[in-house]
Amino acid sequence: MKILTIATRAFSDQRPGTSGLRKKVTVFQQAHYLENFVQSLFDILPEHAGQTLVVGGDGRYHNRSAVQTILRMAAANGFGKVLVGCGGLLSTPAVSAVIRRRAAYGGIILSASHNPGGPDGDFGIKYNIGNGGPAPEKITEAIYARTRTISEYHSLADAADIDLDTLGRQHIGEMEVDVIDPVADYAELMQELFDFDAMRAWFAAGKRMRFDAMSAVGGPYAKTILEGLLGAPVGTVVNGEPLEDFGGHHPDPNPAHATELIAAMSGAQAPDFGAASDGDADRNMIVGRDFVVTPSDSLAVLAANATRVPGYRAGLAGIARSMPTSCAADAVAKALGIPCYETPTGWKFFGTLLDAGRATLCGEESYGTGSNHVREKDGLWAVLFWLNLLAVSGESVEALVRAHWARFGRHYYSRHDWEGVPSERADALMTGLRAQLPSLAGREFGHGLRVAQADDFAYTDPVDGAVSTSQGVRLRFTDGSRIVFRLSGTGTEGATLRVYLERYEPDPTGHDQPTQEALAALIEIADRVAGIRQHTGMEVAGVIT
Ligand code: G1P
Ligand code: ZN
Fold this sequence. Notes:
By secondary structure, this protein is of the alpha/beta class.
């Protein structure tokens, strides 16, 4: 088989964001576009000759063809072996698990996470390193630098396609390609962490669950584990077949996009437990009967109850949350006498803390929760954690959360997304906010709200000392309320302004308020301070979660 060296031109737009390189499918379909990125990656990876790479994706449109391209290029670039999920499928947490369990060199994930798929949808590629986690910035920046100078790539371009649908070993040139069961390693790992007997007994006792895989890659995992290993009735997993366009939906498990699940969980006939995962199955949403759990609360509840679950019986070393995530986890950490780390948005910041053994659980407000079992957030893991708690406590989702609030207080929480804002307007808004920072501290806004601290979040990684600046403008009020403003780093069209709102209610019993009502004063202050409506020209936030 001949290695071909193919001349190409550099692209200027291949800078990977916090979650890899994400673009429209049509961008990825340009001649040499994917190849340039992959070759740039291989060019900067040291000593990869003979090594094992893991490859898989969330099954979205272009996934299969991209897998074939990567396999031909990996062979031409001297990799010894590629482990590829059957059908080209592997969820993001499963890639992380496979890299770690099989001590692979690294892995490539094909996904644009929760963004829509299909010919007009999004596609993405991301590299994970040997610890199973997202490549750190020094690697992504090196890839980017290489994409700007690259002039040729290597491929066994004449090799036939690998049969992705048959398990077992095949070859491309000298390189071995093992088509693996995408679920097996992951399912083993879950059985090491959770009490499968207790969960089996919960289903056997007639309890019911609805898991909405949103026609994305979580389906096969949920079916194998819930309906297979745990004996949940067939039909527990809905939208369980991965579709190239996710059925035309936005595979994002939140109340705005998982409307079908929210509707199904309403009323006395609803199942006991509802959950959903996103395109690449790293996000999760937890729902009780007529009761939606915020991701910030979910993290705090899991942390407070961790020792009730086998994998965490020894207790937690620490908790980590992204800065905009509510302070509910901090209250738990304080009670447990363990540290709570506040990191910038994006999963990669948890990696150093997990590797160093400083944090055991981590989470983000954006429906991401995880632990040291892999180096990615993990949707089904969070769902099984909840299921394990329901099974051993015999309580409902709502009862567990209300008991939590009664003990730690309640953090009302919401995120308002202003999407499709022209970039220069969004930048002007943030610049305006930053300019006001010195005058905001101490300012009185009525409703008993006085700013205690106003800053632009900067973070020094306690493990490796890396410094990240300009991570979002935050206002903290004397009563513990917070407003955070930041621009999304993952959007593919225009800018998205995210406004995070949080109010602490130390004694929530008896005053159950609808969330948006509880946050009304903060919502009004956010607009007043940032001039959101004026800058964006929009009257209301497009997505409220
Ligand atoms: C969003 C979320 C962030 C998450 C990231 C990847 O990023 O807010 O928490 O880590 O997606 O799933 P953003 O678009 O806000 O930069
Ligand atoms: Zn995702």
